[in-house]
Amino acid sequence: MEFTFFRKLTHLSILDLSNNDLVVVDGANDNPLASSPKLNFLRLSHCNISTYPNFLRNQDQITWLDLSYNQIHGAIPKWAWDNFPNFPSVINLTNNKLTSVGYAPFLPVHSWKLDLSYNMLEGFIPIPLGPALLLDYSNNKFSSLPSNFSTHLHEVGVFKASSNKLSGKIPLSFCDVINIQMLDLSYNNFSGSIPSCLMENVNGIESLKLKENKLTGQFPDNIKERCSFEALDFSGNWIGGQLPRSLVNCKNLEVLDIGNNQISDYFPCWMNTLVRLQVLILKSNKFFGQVVPSTSDEKDHCKFPTLRVLDLASNNFSGTLTKAWFTKLKSMIVKSENVPPVTEYLGIYKITTLITYKGFDVTISNTLWSLVYIDISSNAFCGSIPESIGVLAMLNMVNMSRNSLTGPIPSQLGRLSQIEALDLSFNELSGTIPQELASLDFLSTLNLSYNKLEGRIPESPHFMTFSHRSFLGNNGLCGPPLSKECIDTASPTVVSHHSVKKSVDIMSFLFTGSGFGAGFAIAVVMSWRMPTRK
User: pLDDT tens, 185-207?
Assistant: First the structure.
């Protein structure tokens, strides 16, 4: 298609040809003196374009340009930046094969939104000289930031540079960006400690994401009372010490992920004052002691009524699980109408679930608001599973594997009508498998292996679809899908299903109807859209 087709449409200002296979778009031999429409809005997304359109040389009034999801390769022409007008523009070049920006280190544009993510760009991260609100440089090969870059970021609300090759210490200049609300520097090679000014100064940051770097040291612990944090993700680093007690000043905190670090501390019952906290990820650290305090006064204060995601896996927690503690997880009992979902202010959160199935890691993801789970696997919890777990009707996933839990599997688990994954493997559970589990319509992933269970495996059209791997290591179990036959003469009870599915089936596409042989680990992944101030 040649752009000359539109020459006679002199009043054309908006052109959207997205989702077409446009082999030729630009008309490389365009006569610059010939009349042509002056576009304000041009969208050519998903068009299989391989080169930067040459006809844009004559377009100097475009304020919205979208060339995303194409095959554009090589360098962005220098004239492309010079052509943009001196008022806010949207420039979207994400998901191409660009290797060079063409300008370094500053771009002569005023861009409301500049999206260069998912390309192969290298060198300095290019900073617009004019005001910008949203800058996305993620998933490239950028290796450095220009000096004094903060002087050009006064209006920036979102700065994303995840999954690049940035290294060294996190620049203190980020502390000078007074209007920034979201800062994402995850999946880089930053080292050293977290700059204290990023957490201790009142600079308006709502979301700080530094996951999967090489950060060391301890958390800054002088967070001010007017803390504006709503989401903090420091997972996948080498941060040690204790959790900063001054986090209690962050009254709007909804997500805290410090998984895969070296934190050595007690379970943070003191966070009960954070009345909006919905996601607490402490997995793969060095936490120790009881989750439930021993004294009655402390028990009364260890409440998390808004918590929807609790991941304590792979720590050194010990002690018993108490009836009262489960009943205090109010948002897992009924859907909370008083606490807004985390998506309201921070954009779209996604939970990524990593399941090891037959030796392969399989990843699924879903939005936070459709997922409620508890993971206490790989600790030293002992005693029985409290029957009160049956009141947590909103649960989608439960992982209690690799502990020292004893006693029977509570039949009250059959009340968890929304549960889709249940892992109780590698414990010392005894008795029979409750018949009530066979009535769980959504249960698509089950692991009861390596316990001391006995008796006949319940039979139902749904339950019988699980693999024998779900029941291995229980010498007393018999019946399908195991090869061991039951010697009793009583006929098995077959459970029928009459319920109607009403919830969001988050695992319907993952080995539906199959058991699995190893446990699952869960991590939080956040992705952002442009925020709005409250």
Answer: 999 999 999 999 999 876 789 99
